[in-house]
Amino acid sequence: MLKTKSAKEIILDRIESNIIGIYRNKRVTLEIEDFRVMFKIPDDLFDKNKDKFAGAANLDELIDRAFNIWADSIPEEGPKIQEIDKNISSLHSDYDSVKKEAEKINRPYPTRKNNILGLIKEIIVGKSFIYYLVRRNHRVWKKPISARLLTIPKNLTIKHRESILADYLPKVNDDLTIKIHEATEIGDFKFIKHELKIKKRAYKNKYKLQINMNKNKLYKRNLRAYELRRINKKSYKETRLTLEDEFSSLMPKECKDSDINKMVWSHLLYADDIRYPG
Question: Which residue has the higher pLDDT, 115 or 210?
Fold first, then answer.
């Protein structure tokens, strides 16, 4: 008998399919190759340094190690870094001219090497225009795109596909706004139920949206007074008798017409006070 896949396994299967697509897609391949040439990232970066990737626990760690290996190969000065500068000048601001402008106003500017490393870091954190060029959602697929750029093989990226799960799942912020993406499916919301519960509790505490039971009782009494007088058009006497019957413990000892009016107006003015108590 075939084992039924869990919801998590189904999501991971979808992530795997997208990873395969990222490694297979011709547009992605061409752009990745162009960027490698521009930044002098060798195609055999991973293969020549396999021992340095041993024991990596997740995709983030693999990407970090690959980045550091490449970064160590970039000199502070000399022909190699000058060539990278020349390669990227068509896509990024010219380093020398921008640095000169920064120096005019005494603004610190990174070294040539740090500037180049920073551009690759932008790809890793999903802030580069490469995601526009490859037509992939940077929030969701930045890790597999970065992994491919840094020559991490497809099988390892798939092996650590759970590293992408947090990027893939719907997000809920502190204002209880839920953000989804183009591949989100209804079943994906199951995995943020606990987080959503915590966020809702924090939101309620922040804005004091707790039910005040004393106000709750008065709210019901005042609502009933409003219904009797304004909706059912009952007389003061009929309203008073009904309220005394239904809310005996909450009624004034000598309920006057003015008391009933206060109840009606209280409902009109503070109808939502039960949800938003002061």
Answer: 115
